[in-house]
Amino acid sequence: SATSFGAGIYAGSLMLMLSTMLLRLRDDIEGRPYWSKMGPCFNGHSTGAIIEAGANGFRHADEWAKTRPPTTQQKRSQDIITASLAGRPQPDVGSPGACVELLAVLSGGTFECLAANVFTFAHNLAIGVRQSDGSAS
Known about the structure:
Helix content: 55-70%
Order of helices and strands: HEEHHHHH
């Protein structure tokens, strides 16, 4: 029980940190129009959108548990989480926002792969914004 709880807390904390970092980048470079379009993608959702949804699920787990039916905003994140985990076992109850399971998808089981996917997404987001501004060479 403690192991499951600890994994959920650590995974959720990592998702919050990654989400904060990527959302700050998105806002700084005005990348909102490209947020859901840039790869790497998993089951049709961008790395950034998956991280944002997982962080939302972790941050608001108590609200999500008692809100029936979910609000439009909650449902948007819940749909991304569900689609991202398609074909995988149901998330553990000790994993708020399914962060443990989402990190498994994003990482392929290694920290190096997670880092590569996050930085590739950030790079692709910046390139997409740059190209749309016409400032690409």
